[in-house]
Write the C-alpha cells for this entry.
Amino acid sequence: MSTELFFVQLINGIQYGLLLFLIASGLTLVFGVMGILNLAHGSMYMVGAYLVWYFVAVTGSFTASALLSAAIALGLGILIERLLIQRLYNRNHLDQVLLTIGMIFVFNSLQSILWGNDPYGVAVPEALSGSVPFTDNSSYPVYRIFAALICIAIAVALYFVVSKTRLGMLIRAGESNREMVEALGVNIKSLYTIVFAIGVMLAAVSGIIAAPMRSIVPGMGESVLITCFVVVVIGGMGSIKGAFVGALMVGIISTFATVLMPTLSNMIIYIFMILVLLVKPQGLFAK
Amino acid sequence: MIFEKRTERIFLAIFFVVALCIPLFLEDNSFFVGKATTVLILAVFVMSLDFLVGRVGLVTLGHALFYGLGGYLFVILTPEYEAVNFWTYAIYIMAISALIALIVGVVVLRTSGIYFIMITLAISQMAYYFFFDSLEFGGNDGLFIFMKPETSIFGLSFLNLDNPSHFYYLALLAVLVTLLAIKIILRSRFGRIVEASRLNPERTEALGYNIFAFRLISYVIGSTLAAYAGLLFALQYGYVNPQFMTWEMSGTALVMSILGGLGTIYGAILGTLTYEGLQYVFEHMSEDWMLLMGGAIILMVLLLRKGLAGYLEKLLEK
C-alpha cells in the first residue's frame, strides 16, 4: 500500500468513524440515561435520510431541507417517547426491545408506502461540491470534509452540553441515581423525553449528513444499527467518550479491511468486538 | 404433574389434538400442511430460545446461528446424491452443534447483561458473513439438499420425508419432544439450580454452585435444540442459506417468545402460532402487512404485561 493510498484510506476511515459516532452517540445516550435499548434507532437514521431526500426534491435547498428534517425528527422523538416509550418504564427490558422491534416494522413499512422501494440519492449541495487537491493526482471531496467537521462540531457540542450545562448535569445525575434526582424535585419524565428526542434527532441528523454520500435504500437503518451496536459495545454502553473512540476504531478498521482483506472485511469488526469484550467484558470505557 | 398450570394443560391439550388432526383434514392441501410444518419447526426453535432467555436468563440475539448451523452441517456432512439415515445424521449434527455451542458458550458467557446480547449478536453475524462470503458454501445462494434422508430405525420405516404429511408429523414429534425435554430439565435438580442462578446469582454461587457451568450446559442444550429445528427446516425446503442466520431471524424468534409469555415454554408455541397466523392474515389483507404487524406488536406490548400466556392465565387461573 502506497503512502498516498494509506492516507486517503485513513481519512476515509476517520470520516466514516465520525459519522458512526454521530449515529451511535444517540443510541448510547438514550441507553446510558434511560436504560433503553432502542432497536429502532437505525430507523431514525433512515427517516432522516429519506426526509432530507424528499425535501430537497421539493424545495431544492439542502440547508433548508436539513433543518426542516432535523426539526421533524425532534418532534417525532418527543411523540414516540410520550406515546409509547413512557408507558414501558416500569416494565421488563425485553418489553422495550419488543416495542422498538415493532417500531422498526412500522417505519420500514411507512418508508415503502410513502416513498417506494427504489434507491435514491441526494445531490451534494453546490457550495460543497468541489474537491480539495490532496497530492498531484488525487483529491478529496469537500462535502466529506464538511461532513467530518459537522460531526466533530456536534461531538464537541454534545460534550459541552453534557459536562457544562444544567441539562447535562441532570443527565449525568439521572444516569447514576434516578430516584435521587426525582427526590430533589427534578421532573425526570420531561428529562427523559428531552433525552430520547435528542437521541432520535442525532440519528436523523446522521442520516441527513450521510444522504449525499450514500445511497438511500430500504433497510439502510438496520445495517447501520448493527454497526452502531458494535461501536457502543466496544466503547462501553452508555459512554459517549467510548462511542467516540469505538466509532473511530470501527471506522478505520473496516475501511482498511475493505482494501487489505476483502474476504474478511464484513467479519472484521465483529472479530474486533469479540476480542475487546474478551479483554474488557464491559467495553473500553465502562462505568 | 409436569405441567403445573391449568392454562398450560388446556392450551397444550387443544394444541396437540388440533395439530394431530390437521393433515387428516387437509391431506390434499399440501401447501397448507407445509406451512403448518414450518410453523411447528419454528415453535421448536422459539421454545429453545424461550428456555434460554426466560428460564436460564441468557438473552441471546444470536440464536439463529445454531438454526443455520443445523442446516449447513447436514449438507456438509452428507454425500450429495445418496439418501442417508435421518436419525443417525440428526445425532451427528446435534453432537457437533453441541460441541460448537460449548466453544461459543465459553466465549460469550464471559460477559453478561446487555454485553451478552451484543456478543451473541456479533458471533452470529460473523457466522452469517462467513457463509455469505464463502464460495465453497455457496455464498448468498447457500447449498441445496438434493436427496431427502430416509428415516428407518432398525430397518423399520414409518415416515417418508417426501410426503408433506409425514414430514408434518416429524415436526410435531419434535415439538412434543422439545416441550417435554425442557419441562423435565426445568423440574430436575439441574433446572432448579439454573433458575436459582437467574433469580439470584450471588446466593446460588454462595451455596457452592458453579453458575458458569450450569449456564454453559443450558446454553449447549438450547443451542442443540435450535440446530435440530434448523436441520428440519433445511430438509423441508431442500436448501440452507445465510438467511437462516440473520439477526432478524433471532429477533423474530425473540418477538415470538416475548409475545407468547417469556419463560412459559408453552407460551413459545402460542407466540409462534399467533405471530405466524397474524403475518399470514396481514399478508393476504394488504401489501403493507409490515405496518399492520408492527402495529399489532406495539399494541400487544402495551396491553399485555406478561404476553399472551399471561393473559390466558389471568382468564383461566383462579
Q: What stands out?
A: The longest strand of chain B covers residues 143-144. The domain at 6-17+33-316 of chain B is CATH 1.10.3470 (ABC transporter involved in vitamin B12 uptake, BtuC).
